[in-house]
Amino acid sequence: MNWTKKQISILAIVAASSFFGTFLISSVNIALPAIEKDFGLDAVTLSWVVTSFLLSTAMFLLPVGRWGDLTGIRKLYKLGMVIFTVSSLLSGFATSGYWLIILRFLQGVGAAFSGTTGSAILVSAFPPQYRGRVLGMSVSGVYLGLAFGPFFGGFLTQYLGWRSIFFLSSGFGVLITIIGFLFLGKDEIQQKAPTKLDFKGTFFYMLGLVSLTYGSARIPQLFGWSLMGAGLVFLIIFWLLENKSEKPVLETRLFTHNRLFAFSNLAALINYSATFSIIFLLSLYLQKVKGLSPRDAGSILVAQPIVMALFSPVTGRLSDKIQPRYLATAGMTMCTIGLAAFAFLSETTPIALIVILLFWVGTGFALFSSPNMNTIMSSVQKNQLGLASGSASTMRVVGQITSMTIATLFFAVLFNKQAVETVANPLFLKALKLGFISFATISLAGIYFSFNRGKMAREHEKEMH
User: Fold this and answer.
1) Each residue of 75-89: pLDDT tens digit?
2) For domain 1-185, which CATH number applies: 1.20.1250.20, 1.20.1050.10, 3.30.470.20, 3.90.1150.10?
């Protein structure tokens, strides 16, 4: 097939925005010590520079995906890029840590608008037989952002200051926004009469996420556990309201009556919950226990996202020919083995072995991610693509928050409010071991959901039935 100029433009726009979303996350992580020094932030407040972005993204992904199905996914994508670009620029001028946290929250809203609609735009622009291939290319943008963020973020922070990261992101945001307005075109809304969504449940969904996330930052205090308990109650209320609503934001029937969709989303949630903290934990391990500089640690950690970026288009293309559940299950199994192996890290573990394990887990993640996304997007009707994309993205971000919560929990319980650098190495390694054992156990459950999701019907097979 010869792709049209418009199709190539859409793929480039969505992949580029995927790249800068994760580039910003990984580069800001490197800049955190400089931000902490500039604004005099404590450890908990500093963590919210990262958490506020993830939280707002998770809060808005699902409702925006459903809203996009009704009002137009291209319109919301463009709006998201405008919000992301403006908030990035303003973040570079932030006068305090609290203003930066607020602007990062706004940045996450923009990322939610563009992130949840991006996959839906891609799927709607290409024939079904190329779905896995283009989604794989888009996913590569995500991993390239994760790979290049630490390198360029460290360089920019050291020579131009941490604010330059936000200025650079806003500059590219302007470029992507202009190209988006020129080439994305307008939406074809099938429904003539506007449909109003019932947002009552969404209020409890957002409240639940905020309670869980803020509560996790206050563990092991009773207040923290109480907030997390309340968060779970709010999410249950959200599910019950959506189940009864005639115009829900979340179509619960997709989870209760579409096993392929439900199990694929659960597998994604489990995979991100198990793997997201790998880089966070290993970054601390390499610098604290192995005594490496941030630059050298970053050079080692880049192994995982580079492998993801290289192999995701290949596995995405394979998932157009092979049943995705076999690829995804093999990937989940590789991740589980790698996580279990990381639990045995010690002060004498060779660096070469760590690199090999990162390659192994990176390959596993590449095998899982694109085929799993292909399955989710292929398991719904065309008018539900925004919802499916929003659901998959929500699973990713909620999984990331869950992963960080688990890692932070072990630190909070074992370190007794000490800074990581002052904790004795044996105690740090104990927290590391407990963390990776927990992640490997979680990933083991993901193998079940990945394999037992059922068979994905190809488009021509749907037409025959």
Assistant:
1) 888 888 899 999 999
2) 1.20.1250.20
